[in-house]
Amino acid sequence: MSTIERPDELPDIQVIDIRSGDRSAPFEHRVAPVSQTAKAIKALERDRPGVQLTDDAIHRIAYSAVEPDLLTDLRPEVRRVETGWLTVINYRAYTLMLSPAVENDRLLDEVHYAADPNTVARQQVLSMPTAHETDAALIYTNPMDALLDSVDRASMKVRNQNKQEVGRRIVERPLTAVPVVFLNPGRRPAGDLGLIDGNSRWGSCTACIPAPTGLIGPAKNKERPPLLPSYLMSLPLTERRNFVREVIKKAYRDIKAATGTSKAARAKRDQAAVLLNAMTVPVEVVVGYTDDDPSMGMQRFPAAVRSLLMRMNIGVKEFADASKNGITAEETVTALFDAGELGNNAQAVKDVLLGRVDITDPMKTLGLNALRDLRFAFIAQQLTRKEPRLQAITAAKLDKSNLQLSGRSGLVTELGLRSYSTSLGEGIRPVRTALESGCLWQDLVAHEWTVENVDNDKAVDGLLQDAENGDIPAKLLLGVLAMVALVTSGNLLAPGGSAEQIVNHTVMRTGIGTVVKAVLEKEEGPQVLADAIKRIRAGESPRWWTDGRLVEHDDWKGSDFNAHLRLAALHGFNPKNGTSGLSGTAREERALTDFQASLTVAVNRLNDLITLRKENGTTDELSWESVEASVKQIRLMDRALVRISEEEPPG
Q1: SS3 139
Q2: Is 31 helix (H, G, I), strand (E, B) or coil?
Q3: Does the pLDDT of residue 367 top 70, yes or no?
Q4: What is the tens place of the pLDDT at every residue in 412-438?
Q5: Which residues pair with 286 in a beta bridge?
Q6: Does the first or last residue of the chain, that is N or C, have fewer Cβ atoms within 10 Å of its Cβ?
Q7: Cα(203)–Cα(402) distance, rounded to whole angstroms?
Q8: Within 13 A of 329's CA, how many CA atoms are on the CB side?
Q9: Cα–Cα distance between 492 and 126 in angstroms, integer?
């Protein structure tokens, strides 16, 4: 272990008394003998409403408790989630008796998915856990080596990226854990207590503990590497508890041996005290689940746990929007599957939407070849269907009273990008940014459309012909396929400031979905988009409509094509030259575009305010004085816009 460095004037770090009862006697960490867990085990085995624990989970909870006697009088509490109630218990546990999340949901936007044909098996994201038939436990089916590798990588990442201050003080904010079961443990234990919240705190607590030599062999360097969760998860339960006891004893030996006032002695004592203070954490363990629909049993337990996880992360480090969208998308798909809203081939649809398994056979079941853009189009089609039940479930998962395209765009983006999770590498970031600017347009929701197996150039030509003949579903599918091809190849970018300089004219500065919709309405647009699908699939650059035909522009970059496409979306494919300055009409169009963009920002900020009020439990109405100016401004804007607009069409 490295030596703790601190200014000499700081006082020695003290070992903090964590006892809940009489504190009159001097305090020293002592791991209670296994015999003292018997009463706790017996108490946990009693039938209690809402508590459903496997035998392994009961023993792990009792063995993990710092004061197992307190478990005999614990009163379970309940936590509301969307589909029912989770039952939990709270106590103080030994940190090393818990394990980090098997899969860190914060990283859903970074991991590699089987839907991408370039993802090799060892890189793939883990399968989603399933529910135990009768008890509150998550079941993992992956081989244990893959699970341990995932846990170790996630643990090392949070240690580096989200360090927590532990050691001088004990951890006070509870971690949340759930019993887990491994179906393919090999020689390792088949169960654990896995965290669903608190990975960063766990990682910081264990960062100061070196890996035991008995597990890793002789240390090659003077310093042993820090403890990783795979070491702990490989130990039988009793041996794991004995390991905790030995770590604590070793820390006290270090304190007693480091006598004197020298800098080295003080640092040695501090290091041991830090370790002892990090050896325990408050923990809330999920011990049961009651579904609002009794017929569902425990089926929705994994979704309930995941829902709890995302809604808890409002503290030290919130989820990135992409990870939130990924979790919400998975929750939505799972809820649609459970509600029977995914049609006759529900399992194949679910597999294609989630992208966690090889999608070749599921796509074949749906009559489609496993092309990335076809899968993306299928996701967009499924999540924009007009069925009231589907819309209600999606709105509920998004926590929105009104289901808007911006919300659906986030879900479609994260699920669709799983087909590119390995292939694009770091290039996935600008692609995500472009798609999140708005990859859907209103026609996708307003019209019924399906995804045909457009898997070759001849099929693309047939789709183009149907679109030009006025077939709206064909036009929508053509637009989605072209959008995916152009964005993932870097030829359709998020709205930026350089496009107008490239074409020396005003351009459509809106989300990519709106741009594609506008291009589809131009006479030449469908031909340009269909040609782009074919050429990008073949690894070639898209061509542009010049002098009445499609022409290659070898000197163009993606930003050039993007600028010209946005120019065509606003002015058509043969705009008047803009070198002499903008016309009055162009300035009006630009002003309207800017105004509409500002409204989108305002609506999003209002939704943010409403969401914060819900999260904070705020029920008091805003005072009229605080909103009067905004309300009057909105009313004035409404009247002014109506004056310069056509009347709203009926229906």
Answers
A1: strand
A2: coil
A3: yes
A4: 999 999 999 989 988 999 999 999 889
A5: 88
A6: C
A7: 40
A8: 33
A9: 32
